[in-house]
Target: UPF0145 protein C7C46_12035
Amino acid sequence: MSNLDEYGGGPGPSADVLVVTTNEVPGYRVDRVIGEVFGLTVRSRHLGTQIGASFKSMLGGELKGLTKTLVESRNQAMERLIEQARARGGNAVLMMRFDVTEAADLGTEICAYGTAVVISPLAG
Model:
């Protein structure tokens, strides 16, 4: 796993479902709006990571263990979002967003959501 994969993510360019944070995709038209889709994951806190983060927070700096956990969680939520769009017949998700909240002090809830659509290239 490269540093890029450890601290970032998202679907690769060859994914069959395009995910964008915009309202539209340049060069494409929306043929059909399917509706809202989301992918959700809830992660509990790992005791070792929490202890390490507590010590690190006293000294300052990035909490790399927590960063990696959040990246993994966001990627899993994104994968589930894509699965939902694909299962409903979509080939794109527009206006994708993440929502992150605490889940009853037991962990972190990560939700990726957006609008599933069917798009096709503009004739040109």
